[in-house]
Automatic annotation (TrEMBL):
UniProt keyword annotation of Ubl conjugation present: no
Protein name, as recorded: beta-fructofuranosidase
Family of the protein in this entry: Belongs to the glycosyl hydrolase 32 family.
Gene Ontology terms describing biological process: carbohydrate metabolic process
InterPro entries xref list: GH32_Enzymes, Glyco_hydro_32, Glyco_hydro_32_N, Glyco_hydro_beta-prop_sf
Organism: Heliconius erato favorinus x Heliconius erato emma
Keyword vocabulary terms for this entry: Glycosidase, Hydrolase
One MF term in the entry's GO annotations: beta-fructofuranosidase activity
Gene3D superfamilies xref list: Glycosyl hydrolase domain, family 43
Entry EC number(s): 3.2.1.26
Domain Glycosyl hydrolase family 32 N-terminal residue range list: 1-213
Length: 225
């Protein structure tokens, strides 16, 4: 089976408290809509279950997502996980959040991408720095529930907006492709006319050192999608 999860406001067509819509297919053409996989009904995600990533581990489908809380004009975002044994009904982890705040304490902290390399699990999360520059944070785990902050994986030089979100990282033909969505980029002729710019950069990610060997994220290297 193939699963698609998507940001969904099930109560009306306007922006609101996001949940995770869910559809399943056997052939990638015909899709059946299932009940929402995640609903914003816990204290740590009551104002939205924001996007993240999904993995299969030991026959369990696991959803990693960002929970959002709006309180006293501040935004608080945490990383959480839900688990399913049948691929239909998902149970949120009893001890969520698995990551309660960003290292710098700023609220813009979302969209965990999780993958495995060797015996270790890796997670990157979009963030903004104290200088209001987009950056990605790297975490590692041995069991998917207890996560350690490793380092700031990559950050903007100042020309790539104030927030990076929805990161993805994968290997293709011996290279690593990093995809990010950028908020706050300045208009450059016909470039960057969207509200948020999505694009990619290419380099080599060293899992053992927890860093890129040769990557630069700047206007010069950013390939807009």
């Amino acid at each position: 089976q193939y699963h698609i999860f998507y940001q969904y406001h099930s109560y009306n067509g306007a922006w609101g408290h996001m949940n995770w819509g869910h559809a399943v297919s056997k052939n990638l053409v015909d899709w059946i809509h299932y009940p929402s996989a995640l609903l914003p009904n816990d204290y740590y995600d009551r104002h939205g279950c924001f996007a993240g990533s999904t993995i299969v581990n030991r026959n369990f489908l696991m959803l990693f997502y960002t929970g959002r809380i709006l309180a006293e004009k501040e935004t608080y975002e945490t990383q959480n996980v839900a688990v399913s044994g049948d691929g239909v009904f998902f149970q949120k982890y009893l001890y969520n959040p698995i990551i309660r705040q960003s290292p710098n304490g700023l609220g813009e902290f979302r969209n965990p991408k999780v993958w495995r390399f060797g015996r270790r699990w890796y997670m990157i999360v979009g963030n903004t720095s104290t200088k209001r520059r987009g950056q990605l944070l790297l975490y590692t785990s041995e069991d998917l529930f207890n996560w350690n902050f490793n380092n700031t994986l990559v950050t903007s030089y100042g020309d790539m907006g104030y927030l990076w979100e929805n990161p993805d990282l994968f290997e293709l033909d011996g290279m690593h492709v990093l995809i990010i969505s950028v908020q706050g980029m300045e208009l450059d002729g016909w470039r960057f006319r969207n509200l948020c710019q999505t694009g990619y950069v290419i380099g080599h990610f060293n899992h053992y050192k927890g860093r890129f060997d040769d990557i630069e994220v700047s206007i010069a290297t950013f390939n807009q999608l």
